[in-house]
Write a structure and sequence with these properties.
By secondary structure, the protein is α/β, with parallel strands linked by helices. The protein is built from 21 helices and 23 strands. It folds into three domains: 288 residues, Rossmann fold (3-Layer(aba) Sandwich); 152 residues, Bifunctional carbon monoxide dehydrogenase/acetyl-coa synthase(codh/acs), Chain M, domain 3, CATH 3.30.1650.10; 223 residues, Bifunctional carbon monoxide dehydrogenase/acetyl-coa synthase(codh/acs), Chain M, domain 5, CATH 3.40.1470.10. Bound molecules: iron/sulfur cluster and zinc ion (ZN). Iron/sulfur cluster binds next to strand 16.
């Protein structure tokens, strides 16, 4: 037997023994009926469910799984067979980790790791993964000889936007070396036991179930999905024991190459298991093995610039200065100008820079960005403007919230001390616009104003009128007023048969692609994910059914979906990929629908949580009665208008009601004259079961109760 297969089988057998013992102990302690589940998932024990179709819900289900796990360990001298033993280790690790959640509801409390990753987080990763904002996923485990060097690897991934999961003592090594951690920083510590690697394995596996619509039990399709569509790889550090090696074999079975820092000599398997002993080469080699290509943006500023810093929060105590609309006048504006009026790359500062104030300071800030280009359109101004939020946040030590004249921008003391000044903001804006919008912007100049009177002037006489014009344009932008809709197939890299149809009144279900965005995308990348659909061949106005839409969708999905309607949840509803902001599902008892946002963790009156409702659809499949959609679609006059529209909404989580309330009320007033419609809609504070909800709706005289039966 080769040294490698020997190690894999040794580790797999050890894990099998541990798992069996742990299962027996747990049953002896709690009995077979005791529930076993990971928190906030609709996929049971995901590895077991995806690989075998078995839904584990109680301890009594586990002995059979242990049996399956053991059967995967054939002991045969064959690498393929040994990789199966690696999968057995993954199953064993999953069971051992699940048992931790039997012992305690929050077994990772007090640990620096987070343990199980809930479904909504995976869904939220959909868009950044498909856009390439997160170009890959790294799993780093073990303990490196050189903590500083391994921390540089983590930072290397971080600046490239790679999502990195840490397992083992490497977590502390990274903390000691100042690695900023948490999902917001794209560096996620999972746990210290090697079994906690299961928490990233199940992320990949649930991606296949959520986005790929892989049938549970179809192991070959599952493995093909993770290999082809999940751009993950493993870096293992320190001494390799048999258990780590067999876990690595599990990763290889899923299609993830493993790079170790020790010299494995001739037991290396090119492309799957390789040694890189020079840690300065680990990042490059790992990316190369997974064919992850990253465009490094060299922006001449004194702090790091990477999407990984997007979620960084700067507290008041840590800030040098803030530009906060509630304290000082501010505004941000992108405007289209004639070429003659623009001097490319001119960055002007009017007023004093941030080195004239002492922390914590408040200053005014007006940012005027003037662009020109043959293909530039006024409609693209807000598309570029919204990007400022991201570009500011990508600067390490800068935080940005809001937009237009309502913003808050903070610069940390650390970034200030590194030398960050306003001209660097100008540099970032110029570089990013000329990069991302290269095909529409030929020249760009940036003016940053801190002089309060001049900011007020810019805000009131230039920016506000422009915002008003845009709002008027948006308000007038209806499905009737345009002659073109757009497809978006960005999510096909995860959900191969999914296609969004984006119209002025129905944005993409991720919430990130409006009709204007789609239009701009088409202009920026003519052969890209958004293609125009001529609004032709309306065969049913109520449903929003067009032959041109059907043709476009059928073509975009290679025939997987032949017909979608724009306005119905019951008849050929639009497909869902999995990254939707909200899920809408019908609740026949109340003759209406409930809408649940991804952030809501509790129960809904349908008897299902967000995760469970969400699992009813996705992967580019049409599921009448369930539909993923963006938040902003809720207040649209076209929202399930075929079934009666927003009058059907009977329940939403409180937070969602608060966020869409004003707009929804306005639409309700216009459509059916209701005052304060939002008050008639239930939420978790009044009902989480259908009976209580029905009583509430009756008391409020909710219009849905008087409508035709929804089905
Ligand atoms: Fe994905 Fe649809 Fe959003 Fe495009 S619009 S990114 S396909 S969810
Ligand atoms: Zn998606």
């Amino acid at each position: 037997m080769s040294a490698l297969t020997d190690l894999i089988y040794g580790g797999a057998n050890a894990v099998a023994g541990l798992t069996e013992g742990a299962v027996n102990d747990a049953i002896a302690k709690y009995g077979e009926q005791k529930e076993v589940a990971f928190p906030d998932t609709a996929y049971f024990l995901p590895t077991i469910y995806a690989a075998t179709g078995v839904k584990v819900t109680k301890l009594g289900d586990l002995p059979a799984c242990v049996g399956v796990l053991k059967s995967l360990i054939s002991g045969k001298e064959d690498l393929g067979e040994a990789l199966n033993a690696g999968l057995a280790t993954a199953v064993g690790a999953e069971i051992i980790e699940a048992l931790k959640y039997v012992e305690s509801a929050d077994p990772y409390a007090g640990d620096s790791g987070i343990g199980f990753v809930p479904d909504p987080i995976i869904r939220s990763l959909g868009v950044p993964l498909v856009t390439g904002d997160i170009p890959g996923v790294a799993v780093m485990l073990g303990k490196a000889d050189d903590a500083a060097l391994v921390s540089e690897i983590i930072k290397g991934y971080q600046t490239r936007g790679i999502l990195t999961f840490l397992v083992g003592d490497i977590i502390e090594q990274a903390i000691e070396n100042g690695v900023k951690m948490g999902l917001d920083f794209r560096v996620v510590p999972l746990g210290h036991d090697v079994t906690s690697v299961t928490h990233v394995v199940t992320v990949a596996i649930r991606a296949a179930l959520i986005f790929g619509a892989v049938t549970p039990g179809d192991l070959p399709t599952l493995l093909a999905y993770t290999k082809e569509r999940v751009p993950a790889f493993v870096n293992a550090f320190g001494a390799l024991d048999a258990v780590t090696v067999s876990a690595g074999a599990g990763a290889i079975a899923l299609g993830f190459p493993v790079i170790v820092d020790s010299d494995l000599g001739d037991i290396q398997v090119p492309g799957a298991l390789e040694s890189v002993t020079d840690l300065t080469k680990t990042v490059a080699h790992s990316l190369e093995l997974r064919n992850i290509k990253i465009k490094i943006r060299e922006i001449p500023i004194p702090v790091a610039f990477a999407s990984a810093f997007e979620g960084e929060i700067i507290r008041r105590g840590d800030m040098h200065v803030q530009f906060n609309s509630t304290r000082k006048p501010t505004c941000e504006l992108v405007v289209m100008k004639d070429a003659a009026d623009i001097e490319d790359h001119k960055i002007t500062i009017i007023g004093s820079d941030v080195d004239t104030v002492t922390a914590p300071a408040d200053m005014s800030l007006g940012v005027l960005i003037e662009v020109c280009g043959e293909k530039m359109q006024v409609d693209f101004e807000p598309v570029i403007e919204r990007k400022l939020h991201y570009w500011y946040n990508y600067m390490e030590g800068v935080m940005h919230t809001g937009q237009r004249n309502l913003i808050n921008v903070r610069i940390s003391k650390e970034a200030f001390e590194k030398g960050l000044r306003l001209k660097d903001f100008g540099e970032v804006i110029w570089c990013e616009i000329m990069d991302e919008f290269a095909s529409v912007v030929d020249k760009c100049q940036v003016t940053l104003i801190t002089d309060e009177a001049k900011v007020v002037e810019l805000r009131d006489s230039v920016a506000m009128p422009r915002y008003d014009e845009r709002d008027a344009r948006l308000a007038g932008l209806t499905d009737e007023s345009v002659d073109t809709f757009y497809t978006c197939i960005l999510c096909q890299s995860f959900a191969p048969s999914h296609c969004c149809v984006v119209t002025p009144e129905r944005l993409g279900l991720c919430g990130a692609v409006s009709w204007l965005d789609a239009k701009a995308t088409k202009e920026l990348t003519p052969t890209g994910p958004c293609q125009p659909i001529p609004k032709e061949g309306c065969t049913d106005e109520r449903l929003g059914k067009y032959t041109a839409v059907d043709e476009a969708v059928s073509q975009a999905t290679q025939g997987a979906v032949s017909s979608v309607t724009l306005y119905s949840i019951l008849e050929d509803p639009m497909t869902s990929c999995g990254c939707f902001e909200c899920i809408c599902g019908i609740i026949p008892e109340a003759n209406g629908v409930v809408i649940v946002n991804r952030e809501y963790k509790g129960m809904t009156p349908t008897g299902m949580t967000f995760g469970e409702l969400a699992s009813m659809t996705g992967g580019g499949v049409q599921t009448p009665g369930f539909m993923g959609h963006g938040r902003h679609f809720i207040s649209s006059k076209k929202f399930i208008s075929a079934e009666g529209g927003i009058e059907r909404i009977v329940w939403m989580p409180k937070e969602l009601k608060d966020s869409v309330g004003d707009k929804l009320n306005k639409t309700a007033k216009e459509l059916f004259g209701a005052d304060n419609f939002i008050d008639m809609i239930g939420d978790e504070t009044v009902a989480t079961d259908s009976e209580t909800l029905l009583a509430f709706l009756t008391e409020k005289n909710h219009p849905a109760l008087g409508m035709d039966p929804i089905m």
